[in-house]
Amino acid sequence: MNEAVLDVRNLTMEFGGLRAVDSVDLQVADQQIAALIGPNGAGKTTFFNCVTGIYKPTGGDVMANPPGKEPSRLNGLKPNKVTERGLARTFQNIRLFQNMTVLENVMIGRHCRLKAGVLGAIFRNKATREEEKRVIEESYHVLKKIGLEEHVNELAKNLPYGAQRRLEIARALATEPFILLLDEPAAGMNPQETKDLMKLIYQLRENEKIAILLIEHDMSLVMSISERVFVMDYGKLIADGTPQEIKKSPAVVKAYLGEDIDA
Ligand SMILES: Nc1ncnc2c1ncn2[C@@H]1O[C@H](COP(=O)(O)OP(=O)(O)OP(=O)(O)O)[C@@H](O)[C@H]1O
User: Which of the residues 142, 185, 209, 239 could staple to 249 if both were Cys, CB 3.0 to 4.6 A apart?
Assistant: First the structure.
């Protein structure tokens, strides 16, 4: 296995007496497609929130090892700092700027890589204007990769549902991550949109050379695209392995009792 670009050890998050995440270890290798699954309330989104700085974990370590860059500890960093270190994410519920255009939404993602400070933005000197022009070009380029270039000037709210979800991925990609964390990217998608999403995830890994960790309830999607699957239940990691290993794990079968994981 390549070196882990995301290395989470013993991660714990307590809310009062509830351990929503309980001593979880999870590693994602460079350019790996991995999934985090588990029944409702297992702690998956809380795990993402701890890794991306929304929550400060009550225990454990989150290490980022971006290829060719210095490793760094992410615990306790604010979400914008985590993004600057190369972790980008999408959310379970769509969080776009609905009254902004498709292009503007992606430009906001690019913002974390800007150099011009507040003064530059106020006085709009030559360097700032050049940077703005570059941001527009780069954002357009990202939209092309995601297949949304025909929609650049449309308002986000007017896009079909599947395209809005893709736009969220475009915005995350614009931050130049080494790993993308996707929280239920296929939720609410029709079968064709899910198929397109699968293709997009492969393309991102191949062309952008990034790792992808997704939370997903669609088992046929998870089992067909993941190289490694982590399973949580009641805050704990109960299994991790290849899709084939996971399907055979007695602990996983028990956690999913009555549900079809053999998709
Ligand atoms: N801010 C919070 N305060 C208190 N409890 C919380 C908070 N956030 C999450 N929890 C609790 O932590 C547990 C894990 O929730 P979480 O949303 O992480 O699960 P999940 O695996 O993502 O579920 P789903 O698949 O339904 O999205 C739940 O019992 C939830 O009620």
Answer: 239
Q: What is the DSSP letter of 208?
A: I
Cα-to-centroid distance, 130 and ligand 1 (Å): 44
Burial 67-99, CB ≥16 within 10 A → b, else e: eeeeeeebbebeeeebbebbbbbbbeebebeee
20 lines ligand 1 (CB under 6 A): yes
As a whole number, mean pLDDT of residues 58-82 equals 94
As a whole number, mean pLDDT of residues 162-190 equals 94
Q: How far is the CA of 18 from the centre of ligand 1 (A)?
A: 10
Can you list the domains of the chain with their CATH numbers? 1-86+177-263 (3.40.50.300), 99-175 (no CATH)
Q: Give the residue whose CA is nearest to atom 12 of ligand 1.
A: 20
**Tens-place pLDDT, residues 9-34:** 999 999 998 999 999 999 999 999 99
Residue 192 has pLDDT above 80, yes or no: yes
Measured on CA atoms in the order 171, 172, 175, 176, is the torsion positive or negative? Answer: negative
pLDDT of 106-156, one tens digit each? 998 887 766 655 555 566 677 777 878 888 999 999 999 999 999 999 999
Give the closest residue (by CA) to ligand 1 atom 4.
15
